[in-house]
Each structure stands twice: as structure tokens, then as C-alpha cells.
Design brief:
Blueprint: E1 3-7, E2 11-12, E3 18-25, E4 35-41, E5 48-54, E6 59-61, E7 69-74, E8 79-84, E9 93-99, E10 102-103, E11 107-111
Parallel strand pairs: 2-11
Antiparallel strand pairs: 1-3, 3-8, 4-5, 4-9, 5-6, 7-8, 9-10, 9-11
């Protein structure tokens, strides 16, 4: 069973870059046809899909966040990483990494000075 775990700072200052890592166990991020996503949920709002990195290493981002988003991976560590630049308080959310029905527990990120 694939398990995912998010990690990263819980507090980021405005205009800085948010960086989160998802560590995957129980399966390889390079397994054919697996797609690894980042999703977030701002307080009091619904889920928002941010983007994914595919088994091949290709990426696809939400159009609304594309200009500020980068997803990369470290296959030697079986991890993939989200970077979101120029953050504002509106980027405050619980951030999840996921693959289909398998989700991490989520990590709270607050953007505040």
C-alpha cells in the first residue's frame, strides 16, 4: 500500500517561496502511469488541485497557479517537491500530496509576516 507524507515549514513570509516535500513509501514514484499530485484546502474553502508530476517526470499545473508553481522529484529518495513562489496570505492552506485515492495526512502552511 502506497503511503505519502508531507513535510516542510509551517510558516512562510509573504513574497517568499513555499517549499514542501512528499515522501512516498510502499511504491516507486517512477512506476508506470502513476501521477503524483499536490492539492490544497484554504480555511473555509474547498479543495484546490495545484498540479502533478508524472512517472515520466513530466509536469502539469493548474492554470491559475502555473506562473508560481514548480513540482520536481528526487527519485533516489522517492520524493517529490512543491515550490510555490511569491506567496501571499491567500496561499494559507492545508497542503496535501496524493496519488489517486492515497493521500498524505496534510500539512498546515500559514503565510504571515
Amino acid at each position: 500500500q502506497v503511503q505519502l507524507q508531507e513535510s516542510g515549514p509551517g510558516l512562510v513570509k509573504p513574497s517568499q517561496t513555499l517549499s514542501l516535500t512528499c515522501t512516498v513509501s510502499g511504491g516507486s514514484i517512477t512506476t508506470n502511469y502513476y501521477y503524483w499530485s499536490w492539492i490544497r484546502q484554504p480555511p473555509g474553502k474547498g479543495l484546490e488541485w495545484i498540479g502533478y508530476i508524472a512517472y515520466s517526470g513530466s509536469t502539469y499545473y493548474s492554470p491559475s497557479l502555473k506562473s508560481r508553481t514548480s513540482i520536481s522529484r528526487d527519485t533516489s529518495k522517492n520524493q517529490f517537491t512543491l515550490q510555490l513562489s511569491s506567496v501571499t496570505p491567500e496561499d494559507t492552506a492545508v497542503y496535501y500530496c496524493a496519488r489517486v485515492s492515497q493521500w498524505g495526512q496534510g500539512t498546515q502552511v500559514t503565510v504571515s509576516s
